[in-house]
Amino acid sequence: xxxxxxxxxxxAYSTVDVAKILGLTDGQVRxxxxxxxxxxxxxxxxxxxxxxxxxxxxxGSDDPISSHGGAA
Length: 72
Hints:
Helices cover about 40% and strands about 15% of the residues. It is of the alpha+beta class. The protein has a domain at about 10-60: Arc Repressor Mutant, subunit A (Orthogonal Bundle), CATH 1.10.10. It is globular. The model has no long low-confidence stretch (mean pLDDT about 85). It comes from Longimycelium tulufanense.
């Protein structure tokens, strides 16, 4: 392990990481990315979500998130 690795700030997160941060499921976060409600990069099967996108989402998030994709 690189001794300097812990000194580097985390700039991006996986959907699993973001789900834990926001208290959502991985599927809900993937849906937010897929519908472009949460800014992300899609790299093959993975989404990479910048830290700034999480902050932007929280700053403008007024709508409840439904686990079934419809209106709450």
